[in-house]
Amino acid sequence: MHHQLVNGISDLELFFEKLTPELEEIFDMNQLKRDLGYLKQTMKKVPDI
């Protein structure tokens, strides 16, 4: 389960990479990427449930 969450976050990062040019007009993509990176690091530290 834990690895699926980390992989899901990685997939989200790739998804946002593709959409970044369009979304940067609306959102602060750098902040969003930092938040995702932080979430991914946190998930790696959480033990498997």
From TrEMBL:
Tree of life domain: Eukaryota
Protein name: 22359_t:CDS:1
